[in-house]
Amino acid sequence: MKNIFLAFSIIFSIVFSSACVDKGANSTTTTGGEGSGDIKVGVYGDTSGATSSFGQSTKNGIQLAFEEINAAGGVNGRKLIMIFEDDQGRPEQAKTVVSKLINQDKVQALLGEVASTNSLAAAPVAQDAKIPMITPSSTNPKVTEVGDYISRVCFIDPFQGSVMARFSANTLKAKTAAIIGDVNSDYSKGLTAVFEQEFTKLGGQVVAKEAYTQTDPDFKGQLTKIRNLKPDVIYIPGYYGQVGIIAKQARELDMNMPLLGGDGWDSPDLWKLGGEALKNAFISNHYSADNPAPEIQNFVKAYQAKFSVAPDSLAALAYDAAKVLADAIRRAGGTDSAKLKDAINATKEFKGVTGSITLDASRNAVKPAVVLELSPAESKFTFKETIYPEGMSAPTNTNTNSSMNMNSMSGGNMNSNSMTGGNMNSNVSSGSNMSMNSNSANSSAMNANMR
Ligand code: PHE
User: Fold this and answer.
1) CA distance 7 to 240
2) 34: preceding bond cis by omega (within 30 degrees)
3) What is the domain extent for residue 145?
4) Which atom of ligand 1 is found nearest the CA of 115?
5) Which numbered atom of ligand 1 lies nearest the CA of 312?
6) Where residue 210 sits, what CATH number does that domain have?
7) Got the DSSP string for 97-151?
8) Do 143 and 188 have their domain in common?
9) In total, how many domains does the chain have?
10) Does 382 lie in the same domain as 240?
11) Are residues 402 and 297 both part of a single domain?
């Protein structure tokens, strides 16, 4: 009897408290004003499919950020509430859950997705409904081209792809490369195009381009073709689930050349899949958990304490996206969607754990990238160097990276032709503020090349 009473009172309190949340949200939408009460933020990602560690890390990063913000009194006194939807890593599902978050849950902003193809599927829904969406980590240029309600706090692939082409040609002195990419991923296709273009401009030759899909169980057919051509490096712009296995199968075929990739490799699950085969591999990424800067180490410690795992770049970017959103709500004076969109798009020099975040006219963050070397024995990514985009140089009073062991791009002269005739300086920092002129192009010209 006592138990039944207890059960009833629990049910009652759940119904009652969720009714309260709904009431607050409804009054916000019906008044159409700046709003009051809790702020509902829709978050969508993959927590059960082939890229589930992406969604999990993203959710964790946002949870930590919201808890910190709410503990400090919220945004203009209002609490941030995350409403999370699992899209299973499927584009159609991403679109469906974003419609649900907007129409049913009445979220006032969206954070997500990770994989560019999923963000591309859902972004038009957010744009049509005029609900601001910040993707923490989708790097394909087309995502923010969907419209002015769509923005991101990460760099884009024309930059990331050129970073690895330059690393191959200048640091590894590679003359030939093969690429093996995911044909169903906008991310992978974009990086394939940029890498080929940049590597060729630097005098290298792409000797093979092989394709796979995320459901392929085996990659030895493609790898055998590549092996016969003996490329100096293999670029694999894919996601961790396939990359780990590709690395293993390449080593089984006695292919011991450097393997190169991008942010899509970043997952705690990569080590289980690839193991020792991940030696002699390098990726471009958004941040390094090794960075001794106190603001980064504070984040790493708080995250580690809460989730018992080190924060990967997804977690760091999601944390930053959540904080950028909160900052924009504060500056907009509320959640009026047009004002909030304008405030997000005006983000300037926001100090995030992934660097200083400034959105350009195309709503993309202009930020440096890091090159990391894989250390499978310790299951960790080891910092190699930071590469800055056009017009940005290493901070002079840097407290970052200075104690790190780095092989820079060896101080060699990196002057070369630009990608599209634009002229962009790119600086490589190895702790000593060394900088070099390098090739590249402005991002809009590079966007054109991705299409
Ligand atoms: N940049 C990837 C994409 O656009 C997603 C990703 C970001 C994956 C960061 C891992 C780490 O698809």
Assistant:
1) 44
2) no
3) 26-155+292-366
4) 12
5) 11
6) 3.40.50.2300
7) HHHHHHHTS--SEEE--SSHHHHHHHHHHHHHHT--EEESS---THHHHT-TTEE
8) no
9) 2
10) yes
11) no
333: left (phi over 0), alpha (psi -120 to 50) or beta: left
- Find where tokens 């709410």 sit: 70
**Residue 393's pLDDT is what?**
80
- 368-382 pLDDT, tens digit per residue, is 999 999 999 999 999
**Token pair of 140, please?**
């394909």
| Cα–ligand 1 centroid distance for 93 (angstroms) | 18
CA of 116 to the centre of ligand 1 (A): 7
Backbone angles phi, psi at 87, to 5 degrees: -105, 10
Q: Which atom of ligand 1 is nearest to the CA of 143?
A: 4
Q: Are β-strands 176-182 and 205-212 bridged in parallel, bridged antiparallel, or unpaired?
A: parallel
Partners of 357 in the β-ladder: 350
Positive or negative, the CA dihedral 414, 415, 421, 424 is positive
327-361 pLDDT tens trace: 999 999 999 999 999 999 999 999 999 999 999 99
Residues 203 and 85 in one domain: no
Structure tokens at 238: 């894919």
Sort strands 281-285 and 369-375 into parallel, antiparallel or unpaired: antiparallel
pLDDT tens string 66-105: 999 999 999 999 999 999 999 999 999 999 999 999 999 9
**Do 374 and 297 share a structural domain?**
no
How confident is the model at residue 34, as a pLDDT? 62
Place of tokens 């690429």: 179
The ligand 1 site (C-beta within 6 Å) comprises 54, 114-116, 137-140, 187, 263-264, 266, 313-314
Ligand 1 pocket, mutate which of 145, 187, 214, 381 (most atoms under 8 A from CB): 187
